[in-house]
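Recall the central idea of this unit: under ordinary conditions, the amino acid sequence of a chain determines the structure it adopts. In this exercise we apply that idea directly, starting from the sequence alone.
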Amino acid sequence: MTAVDEARPATSPGARPETGTVLRFPAGFRWGTATAAYQIEGGAAEDGRTPSIWDTFSRTPGKVRNGDTGDIAADHLHRMPDDVRLMKELGVTDYRFSVSWPRVQPTGRGPAVERGLDFYRRLVDELLAAGIRPVATLYHWDLPQELEDAGGWPERDTAHRFAEYAGLVAGALGDRVSTWTTLNEPWCAAFLGYGNGVHAPGRTSDLAALRAAHHLNLAHGAGAKVLRERLPETAEISLTLNLHALRPLTDTEADRDAVRRIDAVANRIFLDPVFHGRLPEDLVADTAAVTDWSFVKDGDLEVTSTPIDSLGINYYSPSVVSAGTSESPSPWAGAEQHVAFTPAAGPRTAMDWPVDADGLYELLTRLRDELPSVPVLVTENGAAYDDYADPEGDVHDPERVAYLDGHLGAVHRAIEDGADVRGYFLWSLLDNFEWAYGYSKRFGIVHVDFASQRRTVKDSARWYAEVIGRGGLARP
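Accordingly, the structure predicted from this sequence is:
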């Protein structure tokens, strides 16, 4: 009997009848959960997989807490059918997973490794058999190390390599996967990976970060073109951005200008090339001391603005910005000498991030106003808390339930106010490898004992199953 078999079901057959009001979501609303390959799969050296930048980074002393790696992670590679069964018990309609580039195309070049693709074929088949829509993300930060050795995202050839890889995966899964995301959070890949170096590959260069951001936009557009060519006409092609909800510390011109600077390098550096085929003029001016942007070639912005069908946004907390100076090295290329950040007030998660659902509402209504024709999916939202299995084997996480309830309430309010939000993907299904934090932070609604790999359904998972079952949030 597996650990999942021993766990109590995610749903409660004898659940009490609801009383009061239900904040109902639109018919067809997509109730999902999400994961990422390096964070859960394990099997780092199986099926021909070669190292990614995160394999290398996590083995670099001092880069990841406790020296943790994703070698085993949540062992999803071997426990996938049980994990899909858990999702079916929850009643989720959609599952957003990422494909490991080095598992499918180990060197980032040439033909696919069929053994690597076979895992994703099995995953998709399991999901479809469970009545769950597969949502495939092609890139969630695990660049093949050989491509980094050749220059990584600061080099434009990496964008061409990504488009080739996108075609390989589309050819294998395109007959069964109807929703595709090119990139997850290119801001993190560019500015945390190449700007302040807290993520893989750990480089610290404003110029490299800006070059990487452009080539990630180029990769998205080139990948979207290939997907459009290879997939059925009904396929949904998307991009996921971690847009920053920004607020000035005071209502002064200096603090408002600090918000403008961060909005340019955090949000509009992706939104403008993707949806308007242009670079923000103020971004170019702000970064003139770093680069003349000559790496943007003729025709690039036509590629970056390849039409897509929806936009995914990831949100966890807002940022309060003021005039000042950021710590060095900084992820805010061109803005370090002009901006500072102040912790927002209120309760905080185990990540020390403020809990503020209004920031999500602000982002959704901003997109309603700025991109009215683009449907939106909330592709990540969740919280880490220091939860644990009690002596009875249960995991009670009321803080996470409160966080999720508040943020889903913000989504509902945005929909009521005209935002075209089509779905919500809770981050995350499983406790996992949390990047530079290793295994010290738990975002999952399913607890993972990493020594035994035993899964324990948390109270938040049962709460989410009830929300899905009723199609909305219960209110007294």
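The domain at 28-470 is CATH 3.20.20.80 (TIM Barrel).
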